[in-house]
Specification:
Helices cover 70% and strands 0% of the residues. The protein is mostly helical. The chain is globular, with a radius of gyration of 24 Å.
Length: 288
């Protein structure tokens, strides 16, 4: 290896290390705070050497009125139920978005009908609008229909939010699929619906998996609509951190522990499904 290639490799590794440090520093910092006591979390300058404690995690999961030193800390006392709400809402809305979005994407890709381009653009345009724009009309509608603070209300909302993502991702996969496969299935006696389930879906299963993964992650992390349309019964896990901001103080250590607990399921899920996600995104899902 000549000097030019050597220093080029060194520069690349230095750049990679710098990017990793910048990216991972906030994660390392929040983990450190979550392992400190409430007093240590407020210490200035911050302590880098301390005895770790899991008390904050116990407080978040099971609730506590005060820590071991007698210091009062706010508590949500509902983290597990909120996590159950998030899981049920995420799985149901993702399933419904796939059930409705995959056939719609197939129709936009393989069928010929009037106003097809206009319909496709309209579906895409729903991603242009900032979510805050539709909050007031949705709030009034949900209040009239009795859907405020219900799982069903969030499931309906998240399903429609995810629908455009699923349709446009899957349309890219169906566009890449040779039309001869569909024609062969039709010649063999399959109906249009049969060709979808027997040929199109098995061929594009990587895209379905990738769409499901992105939809699940996005729904789990959603905050704006959850904080506006829920108050008690249907609160999701992302709202748990709000319980540690009070007029008395901000419980940074408990908030950090809650943030870590919220992140862990997404991190594990992403690691497990990383192979399918990468394969899906590199197989044509990014093609519009």
């Amino acid at each position: 290896m000549n000097k030019k290639k050597f220093w080029g490799a060194v520069g690349s590794w230095v750049l990679i290390v710098m990017v990793l440090l910048i990216t991972l520093f906030p994660v390392w910092w929040i983990v450190m705070i979550s392992l400190k006591t409430s007093d240590q979390a407020l210490t200035i300058p911050p302590k880098l050497i301390f005895k770790p404690t899991l008390e904050n995690y116990r407080s978040v999961l099971f609730g506590a009125a005060q820590n071991s030193s007698g210091r009062w800390v706010p508590t949500t006392k509902g983290f597990l139920s909120q996590a159950a709400n998030s899981l049920a809402i995420c799985l149901t809305s993702t399933f419904l978005a796939l059930i409705a979005g995959v056939p719609a994407a197939y129709a936009l890709s393989k069928f010929r009908f009037k106003k097809k381009q206009e319909i496709s653009f309209f579906i895409l345009s729903t991603r242009f609008m900032p979510p805050i724009v539709v909050v007031i009309p949705l709030f009034l509608l949900y209040r009239q229909l009795g859907l405020m603070d219900t799982r069903l209300g969030l499931i309906i909302l998240y399903t429609f939010i995810s629908l455009s993502l699923v349709i446009w991702m899957m349309k890219g996969f169906f566009d890449d699929m040779p039309v001869e496969l569909i024609e062969s299935a039709r010649v063999d006696g399959c109906s249009r619906l049969g060709a979808l389930f027997k040929v199109a879906i098995p061929v594009t299963r990587q895209g379905i998996v990738a769409s499901a993964i992105l939809t699940l992650i996005g729904t789990w992390n959603e905050f704006l609509f959850a904080v506006i349309f829920t108050s008690k019964n249907a609160k999701t896990v992302t709202l748990s951190v709000m319980g540690y901001v009070t007029i008395r103080e901000v419980a940074w250590a408990n908030m950090a522990a809650a943030g870590i607990l919220i992140t862990i399921p997404v991190l594990i899920f992403t690691i497990i499904t990383q192979k399918h996600l990468v394969q899906g995104l590199t197989s044509g899902a990014v093609k519009g």
